[in-house]
Design a protein that fits this description.
The chain is of the alpha/beta class and 381 residues long. Helices cover 48% and strands 13% of the residues.
């Protein structure tokens, strides 16, 4: 039987857990020609949700859908390369008319794309050095999206990367093109919440108030437990709702980390066996042992103030008012100013994130990597 707890690739519909309301909200926004800002902690399921939306009947076939993760890009030229390559690879399996229009529009780099005459597979011969004028090529890409014979949806993941490009006008350049478009909607997604909020909530920034915000919260505890129990039961394996709750609570309801644990347990479970809390603990212990070197290296690369603050947040679980005298004293931190600097460092490294809670919209900080979170508590308590 197929392992129902997918941790890579496209998740088949029957193994996709919940997200019904989020799916509906995104579809309604796209159908009404709104751009979307999709944020969440890392590994909460943004990418899978986007792909899930693209597979829905109301979207699939009616739109050209493109997805590009730009986390590894560091310049405008690399961004242009990633966007152009994604459009080309998406269009190749379809109608030749659409592909011809694309190649006829992006004249500055069209020579870098071809099709294998034997297999029909797309071939990208384009090198970064072939993009002599990234601003011109970007204009051609947006021109194609506007002229395409179907409406387009382009998801750009880890969109906050553009804020770190050496070119200072990238946000304004993109916004200028996007605000003039009628044939393409964009999903801007990312996990660096504080940078994305600055980009889309600051009046002084080009993307101010230009997209409908949607923050991806945890899957409902009961719905996830039901999903777990049902899929183990289909394989003839027993697990109680209480045991599923135990894993959910231990990993703070973060989708990937729960899926990873159940994926590993499912892989070694035989029909007629039972999944217990002890087996969950054992699976997590194995995962932590596999990652001990990586976590140690992560801590070794950061300064003492950042390391101390990270450990303090791990011990607290969810920490607010990090610069308060009470928090600084309790965890023997240097000073409120050093905590402020360390907090910015950890946010930039995406080792911590925050939720907005309470009537005063207070920031509550946490470690999104739940395995790292547990590892820190185990080693520094």
């Amino acid at each position: 039987m197929i392992n129902p707890f997918f941790i890579t690739g496209l998740i088949p519909e029957r193994y996709f857990c919940d997200r019904e309301q989020e799916t509906e909200k995104i579809i309604v926004a796209l159908e009404n020609r709104s751009h979307i800002l999709l944020t969440s902690s890392r590994r909460m399921g943004k990418t899978q949700l986007i792909r899930h939306v693209f597979e829905q009947d109301v979207i699939k076939g009616k739109y050209y859908t493109f997805y590009s993760d730009i986390f590894s890009t560091s310049t405008l030229k690399e961004l242009v390369f990633a966007l152009g390559r994604e459009i080309y690879k998406t269009l190749v399996p379809g109608e030749k008319k659409a592909l011809s229009l694309f190649l006829g529009t992006i004249k500055s780099i069209a020579a870098g794309f071809s099709v294998d005459p034997v297999t029909g597979a797309p071939k990208v011969n384009l090198q970064l050095g072939d993009i002599y004028s990234p601003e011109l090529t970007l204009e051609e890409i947006f021109s194609y999206l506007e002229k395409a014979d179907k409406r387009c949806i382009f998801a750009i993941d880890e969109f906050q990367q553009i804020a770190s490009y050496p070119e200072k006008n990238v946000e304004a350049l993109l916004r200028t093109h996007i605000q003039a478009m009628n044939n393409c909607c964009f999903i801007f997604s990312g996990s660096n919440r504080h940078i994305l909020e600055q980009m889309f909530s600051s009046y002084a920034r080009p993307f101010y108030n230009s997209a409908k915000p949607l923050h991806l919260e945890r899957i409902d505890r009961e719905k996830y437990a039901g999903f777990v129990v049902r899929n183990f039961k289909d394989a003839g394996i027993r697990i109680s709702v209480e045991t599923a709750h135990y894993c959910y609570d231990l990993l703070d309801g973060c989708t990937y980390y729960m899926h990873k644990v159940f994926h590993d347990i499912f892989s070694y479970s035989e029909e007629g066996s039972e999944v217990t809390c002890d087996r969950i603990d054992s699976a997590i212990k194995s995962i932590l042992e596999e990652n001990t070197y990586v976590y140690g290296e992560t801590l070794a690369r950061m300064g003492i103030s950042a390391k101390q603050l990270l450990i303090a947040i791990a011990k607290t679980g969810r920490a607010s008012r990090l610069t308060s005298g009470a928090f600084v004293k309790k965890h023997a931190l240097s000073s409120p100013s050093s905590v402020q600097k360390a907090m910015r460092t950890l946010l930039d490294m995406q080792l911590i994130t925050y939720d907005i809670q309470g009537p005063k919209n207070e920031k509550v900080f946490l470690i999104p990597d739940k395995f790292l979170d547990i590892w820190l508590r185990n080693n520094y308590s």
